[in-house]
Amino acid sequence: MPFIDIKKQLNIIERGTVEIVPREELIVKLTNSNKTGTPLRVKLGCDPTRPDLHLGHSVILRKMRQFQDLGHHAILIIGDFTAMIGDPSGANKTRPALTRQEVIANGKSYFEQASKILDPDKTEIVYNSEWLSPMNFQDVITLASHYTVARMIERDDFSKRYHNNDPISLHEFLYPLAQGQDSVHLKSDIELGGIDQKFNLLVGRHLQREFGQSQQICLMMPLLVGTDGTQKMSKSYNNYIGIDDKPEEMYGKALSIPDALIYPYFELLTDISQEELSGLKDVIKQEPRNTKHKLAWTLTKMYHGAEKANEARAHFEKTIVNKEVPDDMPEFEFDSDRPHRILDLMKSTGFTSSNSEGRRLVTQGGVSLDGEKITDPQFELAPNAGKTMVLKVGKRKFGKLIFP
Fold this sequence. Notes:
13 strands; Rossmann fold; 18 helices; Structural Genomics Hypothetical 15.5 Kd Protein In mrcA-pckA Intergenic Region, Chain A; globular; six-stranded mixed beta sheet
């Protein structure tokens, strides 16, 4: 297929990026691609450590989709082998390794959710166990000979742990080498990653040179700040907007972000035009509330459609602005012949994922039964045969509790 003008491609590719190493080589690759009509091979590796994706993950997935729309070849690597090693990137200790069964299940879920962003028909899916598992001990030693310990210790998280006398296991050195071997095997032209993956991406570039290949371009995206406005988006921090969140949840969470995040969310998470984006900062200053509603509606529409986005807006107006109870809340039935702890009720309904999250919400005043706030995490509901109650958790979760 014919490619669009290189300058136009660069405008799309560079939007929202933190760093491109090296930019001049990217221009050369795009130029050669245009001349030969050969799509560039764009690689994105994902270690399926969690089965659920949030909008922080979408930042890089959307960049890959842009490459697809420009006519280039997208390769999504499910890191089923590397996930069983554990990567300490962005942390001061290694992530726990996963079992084979966990990796397979998470990888399947990852692609199903990623397909809401990527064009699945134009995405090549590969598993790096295909080429990493057959490597024998001699192959691993040979691969390790292409990188020095001194260079490895330059990695920020390794350096901190080394100077703090914290342990660093030898297998952790193998993780970036394994990821770099992915680039060698796939002969990637471009590798995408978060800025926290810079070291690993550069190792891939180094190994390609060592094996006589054309070196990949490393394109790095920012780590999306979560809804709390301070830490990166993560389920661990409970500051995330899930790709699979219900429409009203997605809408409400988007409205909860601080005003300072409206612009970067529009830039990184939506298809707003560059022209509209250029004047957005002034609009935010003048109308932050309306602009945030536009963002919430846009995000909800992207993942659920315009009809659901409109319903989410109406749900917000009814339950938050007018403080009404929704008509279509889910119903949950509980035994009426025994007491129930408030923490157990919240967890059983799925409104909280753990007792610690439930305690936090109760102590913060975010839980009520029939409009009465529950302030004691040890609160226990007495047997209530034949009674129905409304449980509210946070600002947007409502459930009808039925005790037959």
